[in-house]
Amino acid sequence: MEILKSSIFRFCKCQIWSGRARLVRGVPPHLNIQRLRGFAGVGQTRLLKDNQNEGHQNDPLQEPDFFQVSKLFSVRDLLNANIHLGHHEGCWNPFMKPYLYGSRERFHIIDLDKTATHLKLALNIMSHVAYRRGVILFVSTHPQFEELVQQTARDAGEYFVTRQWNIGTFTNSNILLDTTRLPDLVVLTNLTMFGRGAPPVKEAAQCNIPSVGVVDSDCDPRLITYPIPGNDDTPSAMELYCRLFKEAILNAKEYRESLNRT
């Protein structure tokens, strides 16, 4: 009898601790995790089969180019916009060497094939963030392109900072801005204008905010999550960047709205 009571006590104790462990993980103690996983797997399999049979689109994250950003531009467009033109050899950043094709008349030439690859990747991540209602922040302190960046952000329905960057905008936002909501993606168009160290890039990295940045031959691309090697001084290049950014964001939002209408 005592042995039976001891066995029941140990069994109940194990069940109590098992329930506590599930509560800590956020799972109610009465749910069977393995059964839920099996049920979810069966449900997902049936759902995918039904979608394939009905011709519906799969999850955008499962497609390499779901929003077809590769059709927004060509290498010829990059060449016509003078995106291949880098700075003088005397002011280059050694970390930009993998993105350089060579030099001509002591000026670096940026490899447009690599620019196209990285630009597609950046446009793709921007599309996914916009599709999932993420907040995108455009940052530029270049006075020549201030109006262009502002208009791009307004047309895309996003946010911008085109004046002096205040130290702590991300890392101390609860004090400076009285908010804890940080952007989901930061787009930087002129890294060299931020001066040494590029505070917005460092703060975004410290807060684990992914960043998209145009990096010229004199920029440091190491802290940029999605660098776009290219000219950041020529108006034609900046106009192409901003147009592509806006189109990628608007296309993703339009697709999301079309799903809501159906």
TrEMBL record:
Record localization: Mitochondrion
InterPro entries: Ribosomal_uS2, Ribosomal_uS2_bac/mit/plastid, Ribosomal_uS2_flav_dom_sf
Primary residence: mitochondrion
UniProt keywords, alphabetically: Mitochondrion, Ribonucleoprotein, Ribosomal protein
GO CC list: mitochondrial inner membrane; mitochondrial small ribosomal subunit
Domain of life the protein comes from: Eukaryota
CDD domains tied to this protein: RPS2 (cd01425)
Signal peptide, first to last residue: none
GO molecular function terms listed in the Swiss-Prot or TrEMBL record: structural constituent of ribosome
GO annotation (BP), single: translation
Keyword DNA damage: no
Family recorded in the similarity comment: Belongs to the universal ribosomal protein uS2 family.
Stated role: Required for mitoribosome formation and stability, and mitochondrial translation.
Name of the protein: Small ribosomal subunit protein uS2m
